Amino acid sequence: MNIKRFTHAIIPFGVVVLMLLITYWGNQLYFEATGIVGADLSVVFLKFNQWVPFWPITVYPYILSYPFWAFSFFYFGYRSKRNMYIILMLILVTFTICGLFYFFWQTDVQAWRETSGLFGRTDLNFTESIVMWIYNAAGPRNANPSMHVLMSWLCIIGVRLDKKMPRLAKIIIWTLTISICVSTQTMKQHYIIDLISAIIIVEAAYWLLKDWKAIIGLERFFTKINQKLHLDWDDSQTQ
Description:
The chain is mostly helical. It has one domain (4-228). The protein is built from twelve helices and no strands. Helix 2 (10-34) packs parallel to helix 6 (81-104). The longest helix is centred in the first third of the chain and has 25 residues, at 10-34. It is globular. It starts with a helix and ends in an 11-residue tail after the last helix. The model has no long low-confidence stretch (mean pLDDT 95).
């Protein structure tokens, strides 16, 4: 196995992590410090929101999302540098959009979470305790658009870009993506509008930017860095 098929993705992945820290966690810290409460969007598709059940068991695909996203990014990079840089460009653009949404139009789902019936209880089972840990760790802010949905849908874009991806890999990525999207609803972490807006942002960015020449520039920029650090992989033979 050529280890450089993985190492060339390390620095781009570091940029992804940095973007996540700035756009998501940066906004979380800012609004926690200021005490500003965001808007409650439960009124959008209210009947659907009220219909969605609380299924604590769905916390498991939710917490698997981070290793899933990381694995997917490296897997896309392992198979195709070009596709990885398309995904990277989409991440840079969509994360920026999300960060601006959170900063200027902050939203809050605390009231939605409280319908789970977990707050104030002292008899939580193991799974319910994990849900409460997620509630406390993530906070009720940065709800719209849903970052969990957005990042998972970017994995679907990766599947669509790779026409030769093994069927099993496609099935796994699709299954985990749908499971994570469902979990955002059944864990009372997001309203349906948060899910819809995240998918719209990703799809719009994909169709508008997939042939953007700036992607070539992005690839060249990171390739030069990787070459200097001896991390680069030439996938021209696999195209």
